Amino acid sequence: MAIDETTLEEFIGKFAVDFGAAMHATTVVIGDKLGLYRALADEGPITGATLAETTGFDRRLVEEWLNAQYVSGYCLHDPETGTFWLTDEQAAVLAEEGGPAFLVGAMTLALSTAKDEEKITEAFRTGDGLGWHQHCRDLFQGTERLFKPGYVANLVSSWLPALDGVVAKLEQGGSVADLGCGHGSSTILLAQRFPEARVVGFDYHPESIDVARKRASEVGVADRVSFEVASAQDFPGTGYDLICIFDALHDMGDPPAAARRIRSALAEDGTWLLVEPMAGDRLEDNVHPVGRIFHSASVTICTPAAQSQAGGFSLGTQVPDETWRSILEDCGFTRIRRATETPFNRIFEVRP
User: Fold this and answer.
1) d(Cα 324, Cα 193) in Å, to the nearest integer?
2) Fold agreement (19-96, 166-351)
3) How do the pLDDT tens digits run along the chain, 352 residues long?
4) Distance of CA 271 to the CA centre of its chain
5) Which helix (H) or strand (E) holds 319?
6) How far apart are CA 113 and CA 139, in angstroms?
7) From the CB of residue 22, how many other CB atoms can be counted at a distance below 10 Å?
């Protein structure tokens, strides 16, 4: 082997950065679960001893947790006073649950794949995949807490207005089906925004449907939104004015079957809101932090999920626009356009 020492040192440096990030992820989940970020946002600048006293946790571990946050750039520190605090921007990401920039739940999702590593590795050996329902519960909780802020920030304010005539129609009533709704974050937002509409969330995972019903009750919309156990290929009902799939079609073993069922379930002038991860046309177009997230998720979550289902498809997360267009046109859709986008998502308007 002809090793270039400069190149080797550069790659070792990159690996060290990734190793540090992987180790830090656990401290982020701990800080989230124990409310340490929230306390730091409320009480800072604060010493480790005082933060431990305020939260009731072990002093030495809290002090070391703060040290880890500072050296990772997750808080600020004054060496003269020994205090730590969050900037407003750090607090928005780490402590403001319900806010549009809240991302800390992503680490719960990431660590869930580490917990499921043995199952994922076995999927490589067998090719049998790993169903969504076969993952540990942290995946479901982490997904809800990661995706909800994006829905809060975009669904009502920009995604729906980008669709032709949908907002006006739902303000007068109408019906909505949210397929693959998980814990119901998107479904509940739709019900809150359009109180005159009939909104139903469907998911094949009974445990998620139970949580979604609880969430709807907690925010007082259980009277106008319902949740049922069903897949995107067999959900009941017809005449829907809007059908939504948020970041789930690529997880399915048979996307064409789902598309055909959606085509038959839509009203004559109905709309399918299809949200998919941001992706370029070529692998080389995805060499950036967002592409890295989605390609890794494709290995550990999305592709195994599709392989565990009937249908023979395993598209992965980074499906080019033209691939979606080809699949959807073959299923009877004639109007397909990228209506808007975010750094993380492509939002398609799909119509018969």
Assistant:
1) 29
2) no
3) 789 999 999 999 999 999 999 999 999 999 999 999 999 999 999 999 999 999 999 999 999 999 999 999 999 999 999 999 999 999 999 999 989 999 999 999 999 999 999 999 999 999 999 999 999 999 999 999 999 999 999 999 999 999 999 999 999 999 999 999 999 999 999 999 999 999 999 999 999 999 999 999 999 999 999 999 999 999 999 999 999 999 999 999 999 999 999 999 999 999 999 999 999 999 999 999 999 999 999 999 999 999 999 999 999 999 999 999 999 999 999 999 999 999 999 999 999 9
4) 23
5) none
6) 8
7) 12
| Domain covering 19-96 in this structure, CATH number | 1.10.10.10
Q: What are phi and psi of 175, to 5 degrees?
A: -140, 145
The string of DSSP codes covering 294-313 is HHHHIIIIIHHHHHTSTTS-
Answer whether 93's CB lies under 8 Å from 101's CB.
yes
At position 106, the amino acid (one-letter code) is A
Task: Give the CATH number of domain 166-351; options: 3.30.230.10, 3.40.630.30, 3.40.50.150, 3.40.50.2300.
Answer: 3.40.50.150
Please tell me the number of Cα atoms within 13 Å of 267 on its side-chain side. Answer: 15
